[in-house]
Amino acid sequence: MDTYRGFTIVELLIVIVVIAILAALSVVGYTNIQQRVKNTAKVSVVQQSVKLVQLYRASNDDYPQSPSGNNFCLTTDNMCTSYNGTPNPSSNATLMNHLREYGTPIAQSGDSTTDARYGITYSHLPGRTLESQPNPVLIIFFLEGLNQDCSGRISGMVSVNDSGANNYAPAERSQGNSGGKTRCYVMFPN
Questions:
Q1: What is the pLDDT of residues 17-53, one digit of tens each?
Q2: Phi/psi at 133 (nearest 5 deg)?
Q3: Per-residue three-class SS string for the chain
Q4: pTM score over 0.85
Q5: Which of 78, 113, 116, 165 could bond 179 through an S-S bridge, CB–CB 3.0 to 4.6 Å?
Q6: What is the rounded CA–CA span in Å between residue 189 and residue 138?
Q7: Rounded Cα distance, 108 and 177, in Å
């Protein structure tokens, strides 16, 4: 007589638990990989935009500015927010025209505009300082995830933190997290 031995309920539960743990680990790993890919793409876009600003400065001995305001989106789609998530209303046409003399400005930052904070903001404020030395340009962008390291991401730039009264100091990360993202401030070195 043939006897068939099936799996017990305990054995089946163990298999289900092991599969659930493996699935949970792969979802977490996949999410981290997506975050790193988005952040790498964002850093690349910021780096390309910074190079155009550096070329402008090398030719004009000053940073680009406009009489219509201090903050501009650093992409041609003109889609960005300030550090607190307020959409930037300023037209960046003058800034883009200046940068086109040195290359092609980036079309989009790669962020979803349905997020609370997105884009790359170029801010020119004559009274701004870096370690008490005049330094008018601040570039703001957002990395996916909380507490991401902003330092060393953009070559030729200094990651900074606002020390108050528009005096900035070097820092690994900027002033914190905003809407599930890390806010990064970078400046040109003195």
A1: 999 999 888 887 777 888 888 888 889 999 999 999 9
A2: -105, 140
A3: CCCCCCCCHHHHHHHHHHHHHHHHHHHHHHHHHHHHHHHHHHHHHHHHHHHHHHHHHHHHCCCCCECCECEEECCCCCCCECCCCCECCCCCHHHHHHHHCCCCCCCCCCCCCCCCCCCEEEEECCCCEECCEECCEEEEEEEECCCCCCCCCCCCCEEEEECCCCEEEECCCCCCEECCEEEEEEECCC
A4: no
A5: 116
A6: 11
A7: 22
